[in-house]
Amino acid sequence: MALEERLQELILRSYDNPYADKLCKCGKGFCLVSCRYDGCFRYPISCESCYVKEHYRNPFHWALVWLPDKAIWVQRDFSQLCGGSAIQLEHHDGLPCSGTKNDTGFIITHTNGVHDTRVRFCGCLDAPDHIEQLMNASLFPATTLDHKSAFTHAVLKQFHMHNLQSKCGAYDYIYSLRRLTDNVTTVKVPVSHFQLVYTILTVFRTHTKHF
Ligand SMILES: [Zn+2]
Ligand SMILES: [Zn+2]
Ligand SMILES: [Zn+2]
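Structure tokens for the assembled complex are given below, as produced in the milestone run.
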């Protein structure tokens, strides 16, 4: 077989799930969830519950969920698994805060796309305010009040480098991120205002120029 055909065959293999009817290592669910190519290195296909447990430190990886009746992978955000998972701030052990049960819908833009996700701010008595909780998690709030969206420090740094080196503008950069999120129904991906990205980038650059 020619090398090109062999490579194509190997690529096509990743569209299948040969473990769909196998039990996960926890023994409680089937192997139906994987991590997208730009996430974990060789993530072993697991059940939803194990995926969530393994990803509390990597909540911006895209989950791929296998639909057995359609035999396809569909992309899901971390928050769409296990009936609704939230990114817990402040609690480094990944356990849910006992001070509150409230999750907030949140748009977080990262280097691999735009996540329509859920965040749980810490509600413990000694908890810092929301801006500090976001910044402690390397999330740059998009607004000063009523926090509903943020950019990861990683995406701001990456845009800064693209902008400096290839003169890529905020408009093109944000649209690339929306395509990375979903290249088929891109119009459904939440949009961040380009001017907002510029404003945030300028503030971020000023404060991090000595890093
Ligand atoms: Zn499992
Ligand atoms: Zn992962
Ligand atoms: Zn707490």
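The pocket of zinc ion (ligand 3) is lined by residues 90-91, 97, 99, 122-124, 127 (CB under 6 Å). The chain has two domains: 12-80, 87-208. Further analysis is deferred to the final report.
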